Task: structure prediction
Amino acid sequence: MATGDFSGKTAVVFGATAGIGRATAIAFAAAGARVAIAGLGAEEGRSVEAEVRSHTDGFFLETNVRDESAVRGVLERAAERYGRIHIAVNNAGTEGRYVPVHETTADDFERLIGTNLRGVWHGLKHEIPHMLAHGGGAIVNTASCAGVTGMANIALYTASKHAVVGLTKAAALEVARAKIRVNAVAPGPVDTGLLHRMVGGHVDLATIAEGVPMGRISKPEEIAAGILWLCSDAASYVTGHTLVMDGGFTVP
Result:
């Protein structure tokens, strides 16, 4: 479902080959934006590119957000092709193993922090200078409801998403006078491959749904709608905010 009219705007979506990122890229295209699609998986990326192009112009670049030069390259390509980037979504993330913190390893730490935090930092580091030079923009980082509360057995994932929330707040303060808004979304359980991989064999999805006050797991398109709202003129006075979209999961 499209939220607002983004005709004439350019959006760059990292982590756009699956789940929330895919839904977001397609939603922006359906709302009229040109979309740069960045993420892992060439086949998945071409599929998203085809859907985007059924609405508007767009292109796909396979990108690992742990690689700063790759992130910079996507933004440079988008700016060269479209002239200006109005919107950036730093959505790429990984789930980690479902184990208690004392069973995690250095490799677990490097992979989770390297993708979930470093990837967002790489995005901000290169998106903000472009927006400063072009009169502003909107950035949304994907955190998690695990970024606003503690969750057992996913401690490193929880830590990385708390860090995304903090990074979002600090960046928002730094650029608020420059007409750049920086916000985050904090989804609860979403029906994506990430959720299935994270809890598969440990927690039944029906049990997770039962633990959500609204009694269900969300769809990626619902989170995408929140991202589009944060990037729209309707949210023109919103910055430094983390929009929790979790069906009430963290309310108790």
